[in-house]
Amino acid sequence: MTPRIAIVGAGPGGLTLARVLHVHGIDAVVYERESSRTARPQGGMLDLHTDGGQRALQAAGLEAEFIAIARPEGQDMRLLDHTGTVLLQEDTPDDAPLDRPEVDRADLREVLLDSLPEGTVVWGKAFRTAVALPEGGHRLHFADGTTADCDLLVGADGARSRVRPLLTDARPHHIGNNLVECGIPDIDRTHPDLAAMVGRGNYWAYGPDRSLSAQRNGDGRVRIYLSFHHTPEDWLSTCGIPFEDPARARTALTDLFADWAPQFTALIQACDDTFVPRPITTLPVGLTWPATPGVTLLGDAAHLMPPAGQGANVAMVDGAELALALAAHPDDAAAALRAYESAMFERGAAAAEQSARILELFTSPRGAQAVLGFFQGVSA
Length: 380
Prior knowledge:
Blueprint: E1 5-8, H1 12-23, E2 29-32, E3 45-47, H2 53-59, H3 63-69, E4 77-81, E5 86-90, E6 102-104, H4 105-114, E7 121-123, E8 127-132, E9 138-142, E10 147-150, E11 152-155, E12 173-184, H5 187-190, H6 192-198, E13 202-206, E14 210-216, E15 222-229, H7 235-238, H8 246-256, H9 262-269, E16 276-282, E17 295-297, H10 300-303, H11 311-328, H12 333-362, H13 368-379
Parallel strand pairs: 1-2, 1-11, 2-7, 4-13, 11-17
Antiparallel strand pairs: 3-6, 4-5, 8-9, 9-10, 12-15, 12-16, 13-14, 14-15
Helix pairs in contact: 1-4, 1-11, 2-11, 8-9, 11-12
């Protein structure tokens, strides 16, 4: 008998799982705490790798839809040091292959949502906990007081997963870096000079203890990430930046970059009133858990790693591989989970180790020179 499958979280991993299951004729329900698909902005760009997110979309039968939303020019990159010196510039030819094209998170989510039957995603369902049932499976409890039963529960609910405690006591821990996300809307119209400076893709500047990255989005917004390296877990609350007052926060952040070239403070000053503090946390590299009937995890819920371009790709592969395992073992969910988790643990550990190495390099006191050496080594 086909198990009743409940997926908690409508991110890239959870939706990929639902889509690949649908391709193989297996129903699932996705429970999402957001009230609708347009309830909040979905974040910045993703570079989908050929062996990562693109492979998952092939399993989902969505290659044409991916090509339609892919932005090859998003692979453009400019690397500078904090004095404003350009150390490396890579511009993507018009005929470049789609090795790691950028896609808007929102566009990717729309493609995945549109590929699912009506009613697959149940909006406004904030998962709180699950209780094992005597006959097997779990009863899910939601914040609105409702419940739902399932035979297989998949936690695709991100860094602060509420499904994870059913499997492990592991919790995300701070890794000494703190981010502030901000941005400039409609930059080509409002600040054409800054738009030309940033270019079509990624614009990165590194100093010994701070970095600034600007990322062009398909909707005309440039997202800016200000990273403060080797700072304590409570830094965002003790640094004196009044995030509740955007005008003063903008001034305080500008002051923190006052010793950098003026082009960087110009980017900060041009930001709108959205300033989001983000402490960077990870799960232990190589996290595993004992096989547990009827429950598993994918993506950040399973192997939260530093933001180094791997997370969404791994989550989507997780979703596709779990769906394929369930399709291969239609009458034996336990066997499907064993096959999936064995490969997922290895895949997640390798990606987390690589992400940790990249983060260590990118937060080196050598600043931009360390990052330059990384890119020169990759392209050598």
